[in-house]
Inverse folding.
């Protein structure tokens, strides 16, 4: 069983003791990801921007594992305020238009009050066929 830890360089990974993603035999488990802009270490105010940032961080972790958002099979959205969820629909719909993963939205408190969404995904990287195509 091959296991690889993927880091996005977030200071929280070392501080809290987790990996952004873990790749185990083609399954990629991406940790709950919030909307920080890691270039500036700021949290945007708009939930839609936080959602897009979180998906960008997730996409980068998946890319490092050789996968894309199209490989996502399960997604969990966690929002403190369920009234914010509809504003995210266009963002998540565009991100997962092809994958159409099984999804759940949960309303729960997050680590910091400025966090409006956290997204967790599981992806399955399918190996390319070996040898000549029939």
């Amino acid at each position: 069983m091959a296991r690889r830890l993927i880091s996005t360089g977030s200071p929280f990974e070392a501080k809290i003791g987790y990996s952004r993603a873990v790749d185990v035999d083609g399954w990629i488990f991406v940790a709950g990801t919030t909307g920080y802009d890691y270039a500036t270490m700021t949290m945007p105010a708009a939930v839609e921007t936080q959602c897009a940032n979180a998906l960008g961080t997730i996409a980068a972790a998946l890319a490092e594992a050789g996968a894309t958002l199209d490989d996502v099979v399960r997604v969990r959205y966690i929002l403190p305020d369920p009234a914010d969820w509809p504003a995210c629909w266009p963002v998540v719909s565009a991100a997962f238009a092809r994958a159409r993963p099984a999804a759940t939205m949960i309303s729960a408190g997050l680590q910091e009050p400025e966090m409006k969404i956290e997204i967790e995904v599981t992806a399955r990287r399918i190996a390319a066929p070996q040898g000549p195509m029939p």
